[in-house]
Amino acid sequence: MSQREEVIVVSGLPRSGTSMMMQMLEAGGVAVLTDRARAADEDNLKGYYEFERVKALPQDTAWLKEAGGKAVKIVSELLRRLPADHAYRVIFMRRDLREVLASQGQMLVRRGVASSGVSDDRMAEVFRKHLREVEAWLEGQPNVAVFYADYNGILKEPARWAEEIGRFLGGRLDVKRMAGVVDGVLYRQRK
After folding, report:
1. Which of 20, 29, 48, 116 falls 20 to 30 Å from 14 in CA-CA distance?
2. Residue 14, preceding bond cis, omega within 30 degrees?
3. What's the pLDDT score for residue 44?
4. What is the pLDDT of residues 20-61, one digit of tens each?
5. How far apart are CA 11 and CA 74, in angstroms?
6. Separate counts of helices (H) and strands (E) for the chain
7. Cα separation of 110 and 3, whole Å?
8. Number of folded domains in the chain?
9. CATH number at residue 58
10. Domain for residue 191, yes or no?
């Protein structure tokens, strides 16, 4: 593994609070890697903070050379495609699966996309299995440090969580500004 600066990765299931975490990091002083190709909308009023090239992992990794010290959002499904020759600090978002599923369902309704017909119970089972596999993979990577952040906890105690995340990232962040961007009004899909 090279001695390059660590890449800060924000990950989790879709609709688990990854965009909120990217907003927090940006407010705290971390440069974010985003192309802003996906504009803010009703489902993410403050933006998605995505970087399209992430979707081409592992074929396209050239962008990682410029990502050291920056935060990039990578959905949990793609984490295992990250190359081992970089070091990563992963902030992994956890959220109640009922809320994740409700949020995903509401987003599909707003977009006019038909339901897959798979029950929420079955989807929750699939997500739990996926999360177990990804978390086991994360724990087994010598080039990865991981911090598990609780979406609901952040909404309740943003200052405490901002402090913990700041410590995880080396104590160089403006944690007051990080906590200040947490907006409980956007918490619409509750368990």
Report:
1. 29
2. no
3. 59
4. 999 999 999 999 999 876 665 565 566 668 899 999 999 999
5. 5
6. 6, 4
7. 45
8. 1
9. 3.40.50.300
10. no
Please, are residues 119 and 109 in contact by the beta-carbon 8 Å criterion?
no
- Total count of residues recorded for the chain: 191
Indicate the residue type of 7: V
* Residue 43 near residue 108, CB atoms below 8 Å: no
Q: Tokens 């995903």 label which residue?
A: 104
CB 182 within 8 A of CB 35: no
Residue 181 pLDDT exceeds 70: yes
Q: What residues make up the domain containing 103?
A: 7-182
Q: How many CA atoms lie within 13 A of 72 on its CB side?
A: 23
Tokens representing 36? 């802003």
Spatial separation of the C-alpha atoms in residues 16 and 1, rounded to whole Å: 30
Q: Tokens 């700041």 map to which residue?
A: 166
pLDDT for 190 equals: 45
